[in-house]
């Protein structure tokens, strides 16, 4: 892997616009579970159809709200890791760097990254299920090992409907303006790093393909093979927290 770095450095220093596209793997070293890890992943322990669809929320809002409140608590207590910090440093030292994330946590921002595009929403941005008005969360409850009891969602003070988590569930459209900005960045950049994502969930997973079609160099950082292997110019096998600081170091050396 280190032998790939000289060419990476050349490309990075020549790049006009770099995109960093991240998934759950970038937060794994902060203690936040990924989705599809075979044993520790959220979908190995919980059923997505019961928790991450609008139908699930309508069927059992207290089950879904409790699960997302549990996760909000875990994220509130987590800290950005070396990968988040390296990405924020790269944004400072490269002429233009756009961070696009599928993650609903705020660890990129807490590491110092700016203007992060959250394709799948954020846990902090709850809103009304019906009138879509934003709703301000209270402080997080102390985090438990797992959601133990159902928790009714608050009622919207305007229309009385349930408040829902501010995330994008399966079958829902991505926030339009965010998606358009992400697609524009992917088709404009000359280098895209895909970091810690299985590249299985669409339309987000299409961004590296769009970048490559427009001539960008696509580099992947992941300890495991992914659906992007056939498309990426380079796949750096390893943890984001180990590899990203080295890549950030190339920008300044
Ligand atoms: C490390 C590491 C370390 C570990 N360092 N790396 C085309 C074909 C087939 C299906 C579809 C299609 N187009 C759309 C669909 C349907 C669906 C979809 O894609 N399904 C697929 C799963 C088959 N897509 C949708 O429904 C999307 N909406 C949509 O298409 O709207 C249009 C529409 C509307 C109406 C009808 C029809 C279409 C919305 C998708 C929303 C996804 N939501 C979730 C939950 C968000 C809320 C929450 O947090 O609960 O988003 S699902 C989950 O997956 C979450 C993630 O953002 C997303 C991606 O996961 P990610 O980040 O890649 O995580 P993992 O776990 O999969 O991978 C982690 C990786 O990290 C692994 O590779 C590890 O190896 C690696 N790793 N440690 C670096 N230390
Ligand atoms: Zn409302």
Q: Describe it for me?
A:
By secondary structure, the protein is of the alpha/beta class. 38% of the residues lie in helices and 11% in strands. The protein has a 6-stranded parallel beta sheet with strand order 3-2-1-6-7-8, sandwiched between helices. It has a two-stranded antiparallel ribbon with strand order 4-5. Helix 9 packs parallel to helix 10. The model has no long low-confidence stretch (mean pLDDT 95). The protein binds ligand BJW and zinc ion.
Q: Characterize the largest beta sheet: strand count, sense, and whether it forms a barrel.
A: 6 strands, parallel
Structural class: alpha/beta
Average of pLDDT: 95
Count every beta strand, where a strand is a DSSP E run of 2 or more residues. Answer: 8
Task: Tell me roughly what share of residues is in helical segments.
Answer: 25-40%
Per DSSP, the total helix count is 11
Order the strands across the largest sheet as they lie in space: 3-2-1-6-7-8
Q: Helix and strand succession?
A: HEHHHHHHEHEEEHEHEEH
**CA-based shape:** elongated
CA-based gyration radius: 19 Å
Report the sheet-strand fraction. Answer: 5-15%
List the bound ligands.
Answer: ligand BJW, zinc ion
Q: Tell me the span between the first and last alpha carbons.
A: 18 Å
Question: Poorly predicted ranges (pLDDT <50, ≥5 residues)?
Answer: none
């Amino acid at each position: 892997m280190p032998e790939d770095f000289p060419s990476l450095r050349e490309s990075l220093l020549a790049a006009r616009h770099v995109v960093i596209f991240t998934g759950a793997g970038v937060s794994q070293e902060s203690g936040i579970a990924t989705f599809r890890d075979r044993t520790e992943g959220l979908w190995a322990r919980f059923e997505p159809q019961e928790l991450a669809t609008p139908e699930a929320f309508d069927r059992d809002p207290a089950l879904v709200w409790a699960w997302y409140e549990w996760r909000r608590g875990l994220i509130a207590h987590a800290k950005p890791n070396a990968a988040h910090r390296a990405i924020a440093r790269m944004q400072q030292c490269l002429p233009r760097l756009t961070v696009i994330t599928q993650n609903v946590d705020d660890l990129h921002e807490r590491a110092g990254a700016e203007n992060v595009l959250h394709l799948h929403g954020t846990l902090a941005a709850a809103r009304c299920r019906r009138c879509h008005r934003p709703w301000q969360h209270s402080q997080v409850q102390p985090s438990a090992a797992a959601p133990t009891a159902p928790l009714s969602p608050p009622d919207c003070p305007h229309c009385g409907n349930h408040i829902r988590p501010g995330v994008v569930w399966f079958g829902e459209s991505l926030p339009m303006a965010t998606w358009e900005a992400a697609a524009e960045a992917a088709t404009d950049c000359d280098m895209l790093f895909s970091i810690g994502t299985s590249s299985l969930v669409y339309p987000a997973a299409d961004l590296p393909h769009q970048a490559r079609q427009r001539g960008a160099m696509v580099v992947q950082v992941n300890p495991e093979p992914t659906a992007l292997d056939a498309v990426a110019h380079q796949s750096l096998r390893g943890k984001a927290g180990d590899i990203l600081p080295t890549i950030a170091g190339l920008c300044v050396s």
